[in-house]
Amino acid sequence: MGRELNPRIGSFDLKCFCELRPGLIGWAVLNAGMLCKQRELDGKVSGAMVLVNAFQLLYVWDALFYEKVILTTMDITTDGFGYMLAFGDLAWARYLVRHDPGLGPVALAAIVALKVVGYAVFRGANNQKDAFRRDPAKAIAEGTTFLDTRRGTKLITSGYWGAARKVNYTGDWLMSLAWCLLAGFGSPVPYFYCAYFLVLLVHRALRDDHACALKYGADWPEYKKKVPYLFVPFVF
């Protein structure tokens, strides 16, 4: 998972830079370039290309708008800056430039619906956790329940976080699946991303579960009784 947690050149933080600048802004710029290239080659832009640009631009905007929240994620606080983060931040694909899947309006609408659901879960869960951290008294007054641990930390047991312990990962993965579905089914190559991302999220969730078991001791099994599912309620 990398060697050095936050490698720096002077005050310049390499991991934060790669995560937030070329990793996000560069992503949106390259997507726009690929859209322009498709128009140059084909004389038009496919619906799939428009949507993948819109979906990923929303993701980039969301990350930059909530930039302060990224600084408390596992990427920044726990994982070293190695191959996984460098590859994930700086590698892009250009499949749609030369492969228009020809998706019809029904298929595109279904993919939009999947994206909306994924984003709602992802952003809703992260906002709930952030609001609880910022003002727990207000969140509790509004009905948020929690487990009070011996360490003094409060673990949310209602709302999104009562549904699953890593429900934000579920929303994030659903969005990645929507992006891949826009490439159609002509090749398995575009689905490498959501497969790779699924492995990454499962591995990260299991690492976090192990770390929390060590951190919270007997409180962690009690929390898992209250929130038994990891990703999907009543499934897993």
How would you characterize this protein structure?
The chain has 2 domains: 1-100, no CATH class; 102-235, no CATH class. The protein has a two-stranded antiparallel sheet with strand order 1-2. It has a two-stranded antiparallel sheet with strand order 3-4. Helix 10 (167-181) packs antiparallel against helix 11. The mean pLDDT is 88. The protein is mainly alpha-helical. It has helices at residues 14-42, 47-65, 67-70, 74-77, 83-90, 95-98, 105-134, 136-141, 160-163, 167-181, 192-216, 219-226; strands spanning 8-9, 12-13, 146-148, 154-156. The protein is 66% helix and 4% strand. It is globular, with a radius of gyration of 19 Å. The chain starts with 7 loop residues before the first strand and ends in a 10-residue tail after the last helix. It is a multi-pass membrane protein. One of its GO terms (biological process) is sterol biosynthetic process. It is an enzyme of class 1 (oxidoreductase). The chain crosses the membrane at residues 43-61, 104-122, 176-201. Pathway: Steroid biosynthesis.
